[in-house]
Amino acid sequence: MRDLKHLIYFEDLLQEANNDLVRKGKEDGNLCLGYTCYFMPEVLLDLPGCFSVRLRAPRCTSPDMATYYMSGRTCHYGRSLLERALEGGYNFIDAQLATETCTVTCRFQEHLDYMDGVINNASFKTEFTDVPFKKNENSIDHYEKQLKIHVLDFLNREFGVDTSDEAILKAIELNNEVNDIVTAIGDYRKLDRPTITGYEFSVITLVSMCCPKYLIIDKLRETLEELKTREPDDKPNYKIKVMLAGSENDDPDFIKLIEGCGALVVADRYCYGSLEARNHINVEEGDTPLRAVAKHYLLTSQCARFMEQQEMRHRKKVLADYAKDYQADGIIVASNKFCEYWSYERMIDTIVLPRDYGFPVCSIEKEYINTASGQLRTRFQAFVESVELKKIQEGK
Questions:
Q1: What is the Cα–Cα distance from 277 to 176, expressed in whole angstroms?
Q2: Which of 34, 177, 222, 296 lies 20 to 30 A from 171 at CA?
C-alpha cells in the first residue's frame, strides 16, 4: 500500500510527550491538562482554553529512579511515568487530573503531589477523582458529583476555566468530530482486505490523545480522505488477523512486532486503544452535558476493575463481538507485569474466549518497556502458526 501522507509526521509527534503541537497549544495560551486513564474524561479537559494530553513515557529505557520510590513490584507503566517526571519530562503540564482506579497511577499521582519540584511549573496543580466500581444509577450520580467537584469546580477555581453547559457542549462537539474521524479510519480494518495496518492506526489513535485536538484534526481529516482511495496490496503480507486486548499499551512498535510475525492487528480493545475511547458521546434529552459525560464514560468502559459477575461475562461477549465484527481469527491478550486487574482478566480471557466463543487466544505478560522482543516474537510466531493450522483443518 502507498504510504500515508502524514504518518511520518504523526510518528515524530509521538517521540516526545512535549511535542510540537503541545508546545504550539501552550504558545496559543491554552492550559495543558495531563491524565492517564479513560475514567478521567478527556472531553472535560478539552474545555475552551484547555487541551488534554494522555501521558506516555516515550523512549523511557529503565525506570531506576522511580523504582526507588515505587518498588520493583509495581507496573512498569506507572514507574516509567514517574521516571519521566523526575527527568523533567512533564514540566509543560499545568495540572494532572487522576482517578482512583489503577493503583500504580495513583502512586504516580501521589508522588507528584508530595515530592517538591517534580514538576517545574509554577502553576502546576493535581486533583483526584473517585470512580465507582459498579454501573448503576447510584454510581452515575456519584461519578457525576465527583466530576463536578474534582474536575469542573477545580478547573474553574484554580484556573478560571469556563465550565458552563455551553462550554461542555462545545468540547463534546470537538471530541465527537475527532471520535467520528478516528472511528471511520478504524472501520477500514473491517474490510476483507484492510487498507490500513494496526501499526498505522495505533499511531493515529495515539496522536489524537496526545496532541491538542484543534491542531491535529485537519490532518486526521486528510488521512480519512486519503484512505477512501487507498488500495490494498495485491498479495496480503499477513497470515491471520488478530484483535489485541489488555492493559496499557501506548507503544506502536509493540503492534509492529506482532504484525512482523504475520498477524495483522485489526481491533484494539486495550487501554490507549480506540474502541470505547473513540465512541461518539450522545447527550440524551433531559440530561445535562455533565450527566451525559458521566454516563458515557462509566457505561461504555470495559475496564477489568468492574468485578461483578455479569460485568465480567459481558466483557467476554464484547471482546468476541469485536473479534467477529473485525473478522479477527484470534485474540492476543496482553497485560503489563504486576498489573493487578488485567493479570486476572487475562487469565479468565484465556479460558473463556476459546471455550465459549471459539477464538484462539495468545496470553502475554509483558513489560511497559519491551526489552524481551525476541521471546515475544517466538510466542507470536507460534500463535500465528497454530491459528493457520486451525484454519486449514476447518477448510477456511
A1: 11
A2: 222
Instruction: Indicate the burial class of 374 (C-beta count within 10 angstroms; 0-12, 13-18, 19 or more).
Output: exposed
Q: Is the pLDDT of residue 350 over 90?
A: yes
249-279 pLDDT tens trace: 999 999 999 999 999 999 999 999 999 899 9
Per residue in 118-154, pLDDT tens? 999 999 999 999 999 999 999 999 999 999 999 999 9
H-helix or E-strand spanning residue 331: strand 330-336
Is residue 108 within 8 Å of 83, Cβ to Cβ?
no
Instruction: Look at residue 103 in the predicted model and tell me its pLDDT.
Output: 84
CA distances for 326 relative to 28, 193, 194, 269, 334, angstroms: 40, 11, 10, 12, 19
Helices (H), the chain: 7-13, 20-27, 64-70, 76-86, 103-114, 137-147, 153-159, 165-186, 198-210, 213-227, 252-260, 289-300, 309-325, 340-357, 373-393
Task: Name the phi and psi angles at 43, rounded to 5.
Answer: -60, -35
- Residue 396 pLDDT more than 70? no
Candidates 277, 310, 276, 345; CA nearest to 136 is: 310
Q: Is the pLDDT of residue 371 over 70?
A: no
Torsion angle in degrees (nearest 10) through CA of 72, 56, 50, 144: -60
The better pLDDT of the pair 62, 371 is held by: 62
Say if residues 81 and 144 touch (Cβ distance below 8 Å). no
- 3-class secondary-structure state, position 258: helix
Number of C-beta neighbours around residue 221 at 10 A: 15
Q: How many CB atoms lie within 10 A of CB 59?
A: 13
65's CB contacts (< 8 A; 6+ apart) are 82, 83, 86, 87
